[in-house]
Write a structure and sequence with these properties.
Radius of gyration: 27 Å
Shape: globular
CATH superfamily of the largest domain: Histidine kinase-like ATPase, C-terminal domain
Structural class: alpha/beta
Largest sheet: 5 strands, antiparallel
CATH class of the largest domain: Alpha Beta
Distance between the termini: 53 Å
Strand content: 15-25%
CATH architecture of the largest domain: 2-Layer Sandwich
């Protein structure tokens, strides 16, 4: 049968997606795609978009779903595997993994390293070795609805190490030690490249978003009551707005950790900026914590996203405050350095950098937690006291800005975080420090070409712009937009386009218009885009989804004022 799965536009390019479309879901216990549970769709979307080998088993029948990266691991089991019961696909090893599978559906996670399994490989049983983890995924009622697995086959490595071991017996003691050190370094590198937090990340995202969706759907149900007083109606509206804001913050933190957010770098003086951040930090930590700031006497020019840097420093300050409930000292120091020391598996890197250290005299971080503190949703705080995303945001921002971060336990108690960020040899943009008021113009005679392929978003944008007094023309893709511009470009004052669209993207459309019609302002909107994340110097005004009516109005006034 032919149908369209409710997945992102990138997913249909994968072989796994094509296998999904070949299954007659209407005749299956899961039902047709439009009726798939929200948690199932989010989990399916998550694995299809991941480059790591992943699969999950869904429901009481343990039906298996996997992504493209997992296809080579299936071997001759691929045909008919999508949506089939787990015990059928892996029948020859089912007795070895059944207890762990059942335990996961009872809420217990498990992890195996180099597990030997006697497996059918193209009709022949062979010894194979696997490293994988099983994590329970919970639904709206906190019941376990799926088993999530991230997996890698280690057969080649294990056999290679065994061969190395046989060679070691004939080598001298010095050569044997050198070989062992090389193997340890290679293993550390592999471990650093793995996303071991994926299982915890999936469960954390599902849990947090389900809570937010509960607030939103519950408030909507109550708003439909005709006898609802005006004050209670407004309270439910505010609850929906608050939940949407928390969901937006959660999404931005996840994108920061994955280094896929679109940064807005600018050249500014870090020395001057730190004075402003220190004032915010003093208000945040309260009078019981003394804040000491030390900065160079000379300007320190950097090319960074100032908002993300401020957020990272505030996250570190908040953690320091929580580590000193009885009060204490928080020191922030800025210094020019000319190398990043060797960190984790990376060698020292020479260059022109600035080091921002944030040190407290709190309770410190346990030795066993130092390697995990940057994992998303990992937290040592109590329930309801933190999401565990603050430090992952810091880590993602620093890495995406071509820097690094170091964390150390202080001998006299407390913790020191040091952020290493690149300096630039550019003139400081004074406009970034004191931006003059943006000239506004009357929206009544201003015509905006909106380019948006999503029907729901398009309806909101066109309605919002009409409410603001703009004249709106809608194009559903870049081709329609170019046709409207070719017909009469003079009637449009600006173009407001989504980034991710079928065919030509919004970024490609903007670059085309910059070359062909350089005087026409272009504003881009995006919630997530690899293109924007990898090209921070595109030069377009970007409005991050979800955005408010005021933010939309401000973005247009800014673009039109230029």
């Amino acid at each position: 049968m032919s149908f369209t799965l409710p997945l992102p536009t990138a997913a249909p390019d994968s072989q796994a997606h094509r296998l999904l479309c070949e299954v007659d879901w209407a005749a299956s216990p899961l039902g047709a795609p439009p009726h798939w549970p929200l948690v199932f769709r989010r989990l399916l979307t998550f694995i299809l978009e991941s480059p790591e080998p992943m699969w999950f088993a869904w429901g009481e029948q343990r039906r298996m779903f996997f992504n493209d990266a997992y296809l080579p691991l299936l071997g001759n089991k691929l045909e008919g595997a999508m949506g089939e019961r787990l015990e059928v696909v892996w029948r020859e090893v089912w007795a070895d993994v059944r207890a762990s599978v059942e335990g996961t559906f009872q809420g217990r996670a498990s992890r195996y390293v180099d597990l030997p399994l006697r497996m059918d490989r193209d009709g022949t049983l062979k010894d194979t070795y696997w490293t994988f983890s099983y994590s329970p995924v919970r639904g709206n009622e906190d019941e376990v609805v799926a088993l999530f697995c991230i997996v890698s086959e280690q057969t080649e490595r294990v056999l290679s190490e065994r061969e190395h071991q046989s060679h070691l017996s004939t080598m001298s003691e010095e050569a044997r030690e050198a070989q062992l050190q090389l193997l340890r370094a290679q293993e550390q590198l592999r471990q650093a490249q793995k996303l071991e937090a994926i299982g915890q990340l999936t469960g954390g995202v599902a849990h947090d978003f389900n809570n937010l969706l509960q607030v939103i759907t519950g408030s909507v149900d109550l708003l439909r009551r005709e006898d609802l007083p005006a004050d209670r109606r407004m309270r439910f509206v505010e609850s929906i707005a608050s939940a949407a804001q928390r969901a937006s913050k959660l999404t931005h933190q996840l994108l920061a950790f994955s280094r896929r957010q679109a940064l807005a770098p600018e050249v500014f003086d870090l020395t001057a900026s730190m004075g402003e951040v220190a004032d915010i930090v003093r208000t945040l930590v309260g009078s019981r914590v003394a804040v000491h700031l030390s900065v160079p006497n000379a300007p320190v020019p950097v090319l960074l996203d100032r908002n993300q840097l401020d957020t990272a420093l505030i996250n570190l300050a908040a953690n320091a405050r929580d580590a000193m409930p009885a009060g204490g000292e928080l020191s922030i120091k800025v210094a020019r350095v000319y190398r990043i020391p060797a960190l984790r598996t990376l060698a020292a890197r020479p260059g022109d950098y600035v080091a921002i250290s944030v040190a407290d005299r709190g309770s410190g971080i346990a030795e066993g937690d130092l390697e995990r503190i940057f994992e998303p949703f990992f937290t040592t705080k109590g329930v309801g006291e933190g999401t565990g995303l603050g430090l992952s945001q810091v880590f993602g921002f620093i890495k995406q800005s071509e820097g690094d971060i170091e964390v150390r336990r202080r001998r006299d108690g407390g913790t020191r975080f040091t952020l290493y960020l690149p300096c630039v040899d550019q003139a400081i943009d004074e406009r970034a420090i004191a931006e003059p008021p943006v000239a506004s113009r009357d929206a009544g005679d201003t015509r905006i070409l909106v380019v948006e392929d999503n029907a729901g978003v398009a309806e909101f944008v066109t309605s919002a712009l009409s409410e603001l007094g703009y004249v709106v023309v809608l194009a559903h893709n870049a081709d329609q937009a170019l046709a409207a511009l070719d017909e009469d470009v003079a009637r449009f004052d600006a173009v407001f386009s989504d980034v991710v669209m079928p065919g030509m993207s919004g970024l490609e459309l903007g670059r085309h218009l910059r070359e062909q019609r350089p005087g026409l302002p272009v504003i881009l909107a995006s919630g997530y885009s690899d293109m924007l994340a990898s090209d921070s110097a595109h030069g377009f005004e970007v409005l991050k989804k979800p955005y408010s009516l005021e933010q939309l109005s401000q973005a247009l006034r800014t673009a039109l004022g230029r």
